[in-house]
Amino acid sequence: xxxxxxxxxxxxxxxxxxxxxxxxxxxxxxxxxxxxxxxxxxxxxxxxxxxxxxxxxxxxxxxxxxxxxxxxxxxxxxxxxxxxxxxxxxxxxxxxxxxxxxxxxxxxxxxxxxxxxxxxxxxxxxxxxxxxxxxxxxxxxxxxxxxxxxxxxxxxxxxxxxxxxxxxxxxxxxxxxxxxxxxxxxxxxxxxxxxxxxxxxxxxxxxxxxxxxxxxxxxxxxxxxxxxxxxxxxxxxxxxxxxxxxxxxxxxxxxxxxxxxxxxxxxxxxxxxxxxxxxxxxxxxxxxxxxxxxxxxxxxxxxxxxxxxxxxxxxxxxxxxxxxxxxxxxxxxxxxxxxxxxxxxxxxxxxxxxxxxxxxxxxxxxxxxxxxxxxxxxxxxxxxxxxxxxxxxxxxxxxxxxxxxxxxxxx
Length: 411
Prior knowledge:
Order of helices and strands: EHHEEEEHHEEHEHEEHHHEEEEEHE
Number of domains: 2
Strand content: 15-25%
């Protein structure tokens, strides 16, 4: 076994929960799940394919089973599968802190099906609390939400932390160390560690590394790995591809006013506003952009999804498919619920300044879950639309010239 030491700094707390959504301590299994997800996307970017590990593991046509077939996909070669262990381990020890979310958002009210604005404010802490637990329970009372969220603990330290990487298995002619370093660098730029990353959790940065060298070495070793494990059973057409990813980071003014309720106060070098900003952006596109008519970067096929439904005459319903694909589907049944393609980080400090990141992926083809329709997206049009509207309408007071921009899964 070989051990290398990576040094990281968490910018926002890491959330690693159970299957019911609770986060009480840092669980490395939760970190590994997110890393594998990103690693599979990187493999696809460089022309490789992966199995569908989330399918029934007894079906060898969908997932690799090393015990039955020594031919496995590149992702299973590194992360393991039935019959073969993961090729590396990560260790990270961080203290835990409680969460502190704003209660409400008084900007951009929700609307009913008559297109009338609701008079009450959008709940934030109650929404998060409602989806945590053994059963989903709609919580409207802020005191009840606060009591439930008191049980949540997330991992964070503003100090630089050591994260040992232990190589536990060798692969002939493949430098696993270089691949893991590259994966961690990519994850720090386009995603984060743990769960609920697109609600703002898990932002981090690598410390004292040569990022250009890591990129060169990592891409070279990944290409060699894909050539070595040529997986030809293609089941990943609609799965994430790193070439579709983007990340925009802005510096924001320290005294920037986001108009949260006065009860929300910052206690750490971050502000837990990721979900709140993303939810506000969802409502902005859902309502205000529809009011402007025709400004969404979608063709008529998207708008026709509600044709013939009871809501055909509701103006904002014409944006509903795009909004659900970008931000996820809420109030859905168990089999129809899905995460969105984009997310917003919490506000975090770096080099003494405040920053926020908006990130995600825009695939060329998307299979709309509710209807099974295959829809198309234009990467440049959609990312331009999202970036410009986030910058101009959500991050008021942003410093545009400080924007850091990554597209196409490039570093």
